Amino acid sequence: MGELSRMWREMPSRYRMEGRKCENCSRVYFPPRDICPVCHRDSIGKMKPVDIAGNGEIISYTVVHETPPAFIRQKPYVLAIIKLDEGPMITGQIVDSEPEEIKMGSRVKSVFRRISEDGKSGVIHYGYKFTLDK
Amino acid sequence: MPYMQSSRKKLFLVRKLSKGVYIIGSGEAKYGELWDRSLREIAVEAGLKAVESAGIRTKDLGAIYMGNSLGGDISMQEHLSALMSDHAGIASEFVPSVRVEASTASGAAAFREAYLGIKSGEYEIAMVGGAEKMTELYGSEIIDITSSIIDREWEAFTGATPAALAAISARKYMADFNVPREILAHISVNDHANASLNENAHFRNKISLEQALNATPIAEPLNLMDCAPLSDGASSLILASENYVKEHGIEGVKIMGSAMSQGEFALHSRKSLYTVEPTRIAAETALKQAGIGIKDISMVEIHDSYSIYGLMALEDLGFAKKGNAREIVENGIGIDGNLPVNPSGGLKAKGFPYGASGVGQIVEAYNQLKNKAGKRQVKNARYAMTHSQAGSGAASIVHILGVE
Question: What is the ipTM of this complex?
Answer without folding.
Answer: 0.97
